[in-house]
Amino acid sequence: MWLNLISQLSGTSKGDRLLDLGCGTDASKQLVARGYDLVSGAYRSDQDPIAEAEYKAWFEPLGEELPPGAAVLDLGCGCGIPTSQLLADRFAVTGVDISRVQISRAASLVPRAKFIRADMTTVSFPTGCFHSVVCLYAMIHVPLAEQPALISSIHRWLRESGLALLVVGSRAWTGTEEDWLGVSGATMYWSQADAQTYRAWFQAAGFDVLDEVFVPEGTGGHQKFLMRRA
């Protein structure tokens, strides 16, 4: 199936680079999809120099290890700014996101990448097809019970010794927020474990943790993991 999808994404126009597989029927995932549809512009503008500077530093290990044109998956790519945009300067990027508005913006803002609207827990890629998988602040919107299987999928999609860069939860919490980011009617859903649990899940899936850093945000924060497929 994936080979057929790739052939459908072989053109250069926005329509040729964007495939919509939908968001499924799960209630929590529909909340996330609709929430990001509503807050897309409030969450990220077309340019974000502060995030771009931060993420550039995060991506340095990828630039040092991966060859030009390496296949990179941006899982939960949002509007493509700044992650897909930065990665596409050097690599062949495929972005996946559940929000119709976000993925449409990504296809417009990052013309050098390809994009798929899909649920990241059900989208399928061949074993060993990516040099790297990047998933920043996105897995925490997936129901907790589905995250270990998703981590195993990420491991399977990576080539041997491939790199994974993930930003996940630092403390355990599941819940929703209404009128998120001040946008009326936008309800967002989160579900995350603590850093120790994520570390155990990553190692159980077969990852070697190369680096782990707490990323502060407001009164809390997230945990950033750089890992290698063992």
- Would you give the CATH topology? Rossmann fold
What composes the largest sheet? Answer: 8 strands, mixed
Coarse shape = globular
Our Rg estimate from Cα atoms comes to 16 Å
How large a portion of the residues is in β-strands, by DSSP E? 25-35%
Q: Can you tell me the residue ranges where pLDDT is under 50 for at least 5 consecutive residues?
A: none
The H/E string reads HEHHHEHEHEEHEEEHEE
* Number of helical elements: 8
Please give the order of strands in the largest beta sheet.
Answer: 1-4-3-2-5-6-10-9
Highest-level CATH class: Alpha Beta
The secondary structure category is alpha/beta
**β-strand number:** 10
List the helices and strands and how they pair.
Layout: H1 2-8, E1 18-20, H2 27-43, H3 49-58, H4 60-65, E2 71-75, H5 83-88, E3 92-97, H6 100-109, E4 114-117, E5 130-136, H7 147-157, E6 158-169, E7 173-177, E8 188-192, H8 195-205, E9 207-217, E10 220-229
Parallel strand pairs: 1-4, 2-3, 2-5, 3-4, 5-6
Antiparallel strand pairs: 6-10, 7-8, 9-10
Describe it:
This protein has 230 residues and is α/β, with parallel strands linked by helices. It is built from eight helices and ten strands. The strands form two sheets. An eight-stranded mixed β-sheet has the order 1-4-3-2-5-6-10-9, with helices on both faces. A hairpin with a 2-residue loop joins strand 9 and strand 10. The chain is globular.
